[in-house]
Write a structure and sequence with these properties.
With 424 residues, the chain is mainly α. The chain is built from 16 helices and no strands. Helix 1 crosses helix 10 and helix 7 packs antiparallel against helix 12. It is globular, with a radius of gyration of 21 Å. The relative contact order is 0.18.
Length: 424
C-alpha cells in the first residue's frame, strides 16, 4: 500500500464528509445502553457503519465514473431514476438536518439566535465551499478534519482514563444485532455513493493521474477514513458504556453527548462540543451539496451554470427546511430512506464483486427482489405496519426492518449457480 500526503488529505476529507452529527450522537448512546456488553454492540455497529461505507468507496475506486454507473447494469433509465431519488433525498433532508442539528446543539444554547439566522449563515458558508470545489479536499482534509478528530479524541481519551463506577448491565438481548441496526440508521451507505462521487470528480479536476493510480489513491484513502471511523466509533461507544451509571436512563442522545463533553472537558466542554458538532455537520452538508451539483452538471453536459444553479437551490432549500426541528426532519426522512437504503446496500455489494458474478441479469434479478422485499418495510414506516406485520413475521429478519436481506442474498447466489451451471 502507498500512503503519501495526498492519500492522507483525501482520506481525512472522506472521513469528515462521512462523519455528521448523527454519527457523533449514535455511538455514545449505544454504549450507554450496552454497558458491559459494549464490545458486542461495537462489532455490529462497525459492520454497518464502517464496513459498508468502505465497500462503497472501494466500488467507486473500481468504477471511477459517476453514481449513474452503480446501477447501469440494471438499465440506464433505472440508474437515472435511482440517482435522482438519492440526490433528492440527500439535498432535501439530510443536508438541511445538519443545519438544524448545528442550531439546536451548538448555536442556540450559546447565543439564543433564531434558526433562520443560523441556517442562512451556515448555508452561505456551504455555498462558498461548493463554488470553490477544486479546493474542497485540501481545505477539509488539511484543516477541518484534524480539528474534528482532535476534539473527539480528547473526549474519548479523558473519558477512558478517568475513574468510573462499575458499568450497569446491558438492556440489549441481542447486542450484535442491536449494534448492527443502530449503525444501519446512520445511512452511511448512501453517504458512500454520494461523497465517493465527490472524491472522484475532485481527483479528475486535478488531473495528471492514471486510472490505476487513482484507484489505489481512492482505495487507500477509504482505508484511512475507515480506520478513523472505527477508532472514533469504538471510543465513543466505550465512553458511553463507562459513564452509563453516571447519568439518568431517560437522557436523549444529544443530552448524553453534552453530558459526556461536560464530564471530560469540564465547563469549556460545551464550547468544544459546539465546535465539534458545527464542523461535523458542515463538512457533511458540503459533501452532499457538491455531490448533487456534480450530478446535475453531468446531466446537463458538464454545464458550469447547472452546477452553480443547483448549488444555490440546494443551499436555499437547506435554509427553508432548516427551520424544521431535527425530530420533524427525521420523521419525514425515515420512509424515503427505508425504501432507498436496502437498494443502495445491494448495489454497493454487487459493484465490489467480480464481473463474472454480477452480469446484467444478476443485477436485474437481485435489484427486483430487493425492491419487492423492502416494500413492506416502507409501508410500515408510513403508517401501515398493522397491515403488513403478518407478512413481515413470515420473512426472516422481517421484525428488524431487514426483510429484504436474505431474499436478496439468496437470489444473488441462486442466479450465479443457475448461470454457471447452465454454461457447464
Amino acid at each position: 500500500m502507498r500512503f503519501n500526503k495526498e492519500t492522507f488529505i483525501t482520506g481525512f476529507a472522506l472521513f469528515s464528509m462521512f462523519f455528521g452529527a448523527g454519527n457523533l450522537i449514535l455511538p455514545p448512546n449505544l454504549g450507554f445502553k450496552a454497558g458491559e456488553l459494549w464490545f458486542l454492540v461495537t462489532i455490529g455497529f462497525v459492520i454497518s457503519a464502517v464496513v459498508l461505507p468502505l465497500l462503497g468507496i472501494f466500488a467507486h475506486a473500481r468504477l471511477q465514473g459517476t453514481m449513474l454507473d452503480f446501477a447501469k447494469k440494471v438499465s440506464p433509465s433505472f440508474s437515472l431514476v435511482y440517482c435522482f431519488i438519492v440526490y433528492a433525498i440527500s439535498i432535501a433532508l439530510p443536508s438541511p438536518r445538519t443545519a438544524s442539528v448545528t442550531h439546536e446543539m451548538a448555536i442556540q444554547p450559546l447565543f439564543g439566535t433564531s434558526s433562520l439566522l443560523t441556517s442562512t449563515i451556515y448555508f452561505g458558508f456551504v455555498l462558498f465551499f461548493v463554488l470553490n470545489r477544486s479546493k474542497i479536499l485540501n481545505i477539509i482534509g488539511k484543516f477541518l478534519t484534524p480539528i474534528i478528530f482532535i476534539v473527539i479524541l480528547s473526549i474519548i481519551c479523558i473519558g477512558i482514563f478517568s475513574t468510573h463506577p462499575p458499568m450497569n448491565s446491558s438492556v440489549f438481548q441481542t447486542p450484535v444485532v442491536d449494534g448492527l441496526l443502530e449503525g444501519y440508521q446512520t445511512f452511511d451507505a448512501i453517504g458512500a455513493v454520494v461523497v465517493g462521487g465527490v472524491i472522484i470528480i475532485s481527483l479528475q479536476l486535478k488531473g495528471r493521474k492514471t486510472f490505476e493510480e487513482n484507484r489505489i489513491l481512492i482505495r487507500n484513502s477509504g482505508i484511512i477514513a475507515g480506520v478513523g471511523l472505527f477508532i472514533v466509533y469504538t471510543g465513543l461507544i466505550y465512553c458511553g458504556a463507562l459513564f452509563n451509571s453516571d447519568f439518568e436512563n431517560e437522557l436523549s442522545r444529544s443530552e448524553l453527548l453534552s453530558g459526556l463533553s461536560l464530564k471530560t472537558l469540564g465547563s469549556i466542554g460545551s464550547i468544544f462540543l459546539s465546535v465539534l458538532v458545527s464542523l461535523a455537520c458542515f463538512t457533511t452538508a458540503v459533501g452532499i451539496v457538491t455531490g448533487t451539483s456534480d450530478f446535475i452538471k453531468g446531466i446537463f453536459r458538464e454545464s458550469q451554470e447547472a452546477y452553480i444553479v443547483t448549488a444555490i437551490i440546494g443551499c436555499v432549500l437547506g435554509v427553508i427546511m432548516g427551520q424544521l426541528d431535527v425530530h420533524d426532519i427525521i420523521v419525514v426522512a425515515v420512509p424515503a430512506l427505508m425504501f432507498i437504503y436496502p437498494l443502495t446496500i445491494l448495489l454497493i455489494l454487487l459493484n465490489v464483486l467480480p464481473d463474472k458474478f454480477t452480469t446484467s441479469l444478476v443485477f436485474r434479478i437481485v435489484v427486483f427482489v430487493t425492491i419487492v422485499f423492502s416494500f413492506p418495510d416502507f409501508l410500515a414506516s408510513i403508517g401501515f405496519r398493522q397491515q403488513v406485520q403478518p407478512y413481515l413475521e413470515l420473512i426472516p429478519l422481517g421484525q428488524y426492518s431487514l426483510a429484504w436481506l436474505l431474499p436478496a442474498l439468496f437470489s444473488l447466489i441462486m442466479m450465479n449457480i443457475f448461470i454457471h451451471f447452465g454454461k457447464s
